[in-house]
Amino acid sequence: MSTFFLTIGLGLCVLVFCVLYRVVFGPGVFNRIAALSAIGTKTLIILLIMGFIYGRVEMFVDISMVYALLNFIGVLAAAKFLGIETEL
Amino acid sequence: MIRSSENIIIRTVSRVLIPFIQIFAFYVIAHGHYSPGGGFQGGVILGASLVLLLITYGPQETRRHISEKSLIVFSSLGVLIYSGIGLICLLLLGNYLDYGELSGLLHVAPAKARSLGILGVEIGVGFTVMAIMFSIFFDISSGGEPPADEKK
Predict the structure, then answer these.
(1) Which of A30, A57, B53, B91 has the fewest CB atoms within 10 Å of its CB?
(2) What is the residue-level pLDDT of chain B in tens, covering all 152 positions?
(3) Where are the domains of chain B?
(4) ipTM field
């Protein structure tokens, strides 16, 4: 079972690099913010998978909840700072 | 200067989410001995909920909820709780922050007294971190200018 989670986690890590291309080269600010949000979501799932691998998922759920909250606030603050909120 | 947001989705989501973020922060502070977390982390989450309030509703509405004067009071109160518990242990002929000495004062067993002492210290740390985190963000976002009614 640990191999299964490890495979999924490594696949998600590869997908993070795919989205990172959009953050670095993506045209426009909106693409970059959306890609950052997607990276945050993938990191959350990777954290949960790490919890399953280590067998302490109830501990990692707390960390991933905090990560989700701070990701939401961070994306909102970035959108606010760049002033693109009304164009959404 | 941060303007308040007109977008109804962001306003509604923030209004629903902020109380839950704060309850979760209290859970992180109070459950810190058994799970990841503690005073600093819970304080950061509390500060993040206030930052969400500021970037959604703007400075005027946020000042109505928590003023800069109360932020100063909170940050000093946290340090007072922390150092006060330490000094009480010192006065009870123990080391600084040696919570086992509190068992006579609280009428509980020494192990329970240590648990309660750590909880009190973490509450103090949480207060200070929340107030300082939020006041740094508040001062940067407002450019250091005092509010309009305090400008005289």
Answers:
(1) B91
(2) 566 667 788 889 889 999 999 999 999 998 887 777 788 999 999 999 999 998 888 888 888 888 888 989 999 999 999 999 989 888 888 888 888 878 877 888 888 888 888 889 999 999 999 999 999 988 888 777 766 665 54
(3) 8-144
(4) 0.78
The encoded tokens of residue B90 equal 């010192």
Please state the pTM of the whole predicted model. Answer: 0.83
CA geometry: angle at A20 spanning A19 and A25, to 5°? 105
Contact between A73 and B37 using a beta-carbon 8 Å cutoff:
no
Which residues of B, range 35-54, sit inside 8 Å of A by Cβ? 35-37, 41, 45, 48, 51-52
8 Å CB contact of B48 and A77? no
Kindly write down the DSSP assignment for every residue of B92-141, as one continuous string: TTS-TT-GGGGHHHHTS-HHHHHHHHHHHHHHHHHHHHHHHHHHHHHHHH
Q: How many CB atoms lie within 10 A of CB B20?
A: 11
Tell me which residue range forms the domain holding A78: 2-87
Number of domains chain A contains = 1
Distance from CA of A44 to the nearest CA of B (A): 16
CB contact under 8 A, B10 and A85: yes
What tokens appear for A50 in the block? 């790490």
Query: Per-residue b/e over A22-41, b at no fewer than 16 CB within 10 Å?
Result: bbeebeeeeebbbbbbbbbe
